[in-house]
Each structure stands twice: as structure tokens, then as C-alpha cells.
Design a protein that fits this description.
The protein is of the alpha+beta class. It has two domains: 130 residues, Immunoglobulins (Immunoglobulin-like, Sandwich); 103 residues, 3-Layer(aba) Sandwich (Glutaredoxin), CATH 3.40.30.10. The protein has four helices and 15 strands. Strands 1, 3, 4, 5 and 9 form a five-stranded antiparallel β-sheet that branches.
Length: 295
């Protein structure tokens, strides 16, 4: 299977929200009310950050956009229940012998997204395309783990100090969740990693998130904690030191983060077994926990 060399990244907007022009001939189906979506008029929107993907299981959430911006459930458009994606190399050669049907996630998030998951063993540049369309695809880079500065799956999650209700460590407020702070600030991450339990650690700021996905991410984490209970230690850390939202909190600088939100899941030894980037909902968090024996 081969695809046109037209399938390349057109432009990026950074911070886990980049756009590649992608007119498509696929038919819209299901998902929400409104007029049928003409995929000839939409763009692929990358909902994952650049330069942090490493070989192995790779999650590539995608949204759709048009001239008005990223398409939401309030756009008056019927959202496709499923999109089918193909992954190719820069020469247009399909990397897998099959396409990937991906169901839409439409609840608890500001815009619907389709989380494509692939297993890529080698670093390199790859392209995501909508199946059946002579369209520009979205390029993404897979980088060797040794060249990625943020915590990567398979390594120990670095033990850092995070703000707690007992010790804010210079961060005020320690939680911007509304209408009241979340209850995930009782345990310091450094201490949690020594307690012999899996750790589920969210870095994100509900009040100042540029992509509007941090509040849904934290709400998803709270829902997961309610389901999982004390089988894991759940922690939330803010991105900024105060309400001016100008100075990065130590959790950001210590982990060398370049995007938010990010959810880190460790096993009982502190090894990072999964990382969810940029956009995710309750079902994805619960699936990730179950996949790693936390249920």
C-alpha cells in the first residue's frame, strides 16, 4: 500500500494542538446532532505534543477542525463515530498492513477526539492519513527515549517534591480546580514513590490550560480515584507558582515538561508504565489503569 508524497505536515500550532490540512472523501456517520460533516472541508488536528514520542506503544489523539476552529459537539455538526487512519513513512509506504478504525470520544472533553494507538519500534518520521482520501496527512516524530528530556515509559519516574496541603512549597494556590480545590494534594510525589503502590500523577492547571483540556483531565482523574480507591496513590500538581500564571512551578521545571496536561502512571516500584498526553477522558484513564493491573 502506498500514498502520495502530498501527505506531509503543513503547519503546527504547538502545545499538543497542531493542524495539518486534510480534506477527505470519507462519509460522516453517527455521533451527535446537526448537519452531516463533509470531510472535504475539515483538517486533521493533532492533539499530542511533539518531540516526546518514543518507540513502543504510541498514542496519537486526533481531532477535526474547520475554518471556525476545532470542531466540538456544539458546532452543529454530526460527529463521525469512527474514523479510519493509515500510518505511512515519508515515502508514502504504509507501515502496517492494515488501517486503524478509531472510535470517537465525545464526552467529558471540549472537542471530540479519536485516539489512534500504534506500535512503532523504530525512531523516525511518520505520517497519519485518513483512509481513502488523497489528502495531506499529519506528520509526527518518534524519538529515541535517550533523547527525550521528559519522563518516558520504562524508566523510573523521577522523585520530585510536589505541593501538598501541609507544605505548599512556594505554590499558591496549590490547586485551581473549581468550585473548590481537588483532594489530590495530601501526599508528596517523592514520598508516594516509596510507598509500594502504583502512583497516578497528573500535571496540569485547570484555570490556565491553553487547550482547555486540563479541567476534563483532572475530572477524569477524580472519577478514576473514586473507582479505584486506595489501590493507587493519586496526585495532582499545578503548572504555575501563582495566579499570575507566568512562573512555572517546580513540577514543570524538574520534569522538564513542555506541555500540559500529562498523566503519569507508575507500577508499585515507581517505574513509569504509561503516560497520557494532552487530551484524555475518564474512559481512557480507566482503560490505562486496567491495562496496567490497577483496577
Amino acid at each position: 500500500m502506498q500514498f502520495s508524497r502530498r501527505q506531509f505536515l503543513i503547519r503546527g500550532a504547538g502545545a499538543g494542538l497542531s493542524v495539518a490540512l486534510a480534506p477527505s472523501l470519507l462519509a460522516a456517520c453517527g455521533g451527535g446532532g446537526g448537519k452531516t460533516l463533509d470531510l472535504n472541508t475539515v483538517s486533521l488536528v493533532q492533539r499530542f505534543p511533539k518531540d516526546v514520542l518514543t518507540p513502543g506503544r504510541i498514542r496519537l489523539p486526533m481531532s477535526l477542525g474547520n475554518a471556525e476552529g476545532v470542531i466540538s459537539t456544539q458546532s452543529g455538526i454530526k460527529i463521525p463515530e469512527t474514523l479510519r487512519f493509515v500510518v505511512s513513512d515519508l515515502d508514502g509506504n504504509a507501515v502496517f498492513d492494515k488501517d486503524f478504525p478509531v472510535q470517537a470520544h465525545v464526552t467529558d472533553v471540549p472537542q471530540p477526539y479519536w485516539p489512534l494507538v500504534v506500535d512503532l519500534k523504530e525512531p523516525g518520521t511518520y505520517i497519519i492519513s485518513l483512509l481513502g482520501a488523497d489528502a495531506a496527512g499529519a506528520a509526527f516524530q518518534v524519538t529515541a527515549a535517550s533523547e527525550v528530556s521528559i519522563p518516558t515509559v520504562g524508566s523510573l519516574l523521577p522523585a520530585i517534591d510536589t505541593p501538598t496541603t501541609q507544605n505548599a512549597r512556594g505554590v499558591n494556590p496549590i490547586c485551581t480546580h473549581q468550585p473548590k480545590p481537588c483532594p489530590l494534594h495530601d501526599v508528596n510525589l517523592r514520598d508516594a514513590l516509596t510507598m509500594g503502590k502504583p502512583v497516578v500523577y497528573l500535571l496540569g492547571t485547570p484555570a490556565y490550560c491553553q487547550t482547555g483540556t486540563c479541567t476534563p483531565a483532572l475530572d477524569a482523574l477524580l472519577a478514576a480515584q473514586k473507582r479505584i480507591g486506595d489501590k493507587a496513590i493519586f496526585i495532582h500538581a499545578e503548572v504555575y507558582t501563582d495566579n499570575t500564571a507566568t512562573v512555572s512551578a517546580p513540577a514543570v521545571t524538574d520534569h522538564k515538561m513542555t506541555f500540559e496536561p500529562a498523566l503519569f502512571i507508575t507500577d508499585a516500584t515507581g517505574k513509569l508504565v504509561e503516560r497520557l498526553d494532552a487530551i484524555f477522558d475518564t474512559s481512557e484513564v480507566l482503560d490505562a489503569l486496567q491495562r496496567n493491573g490497577i483496577s
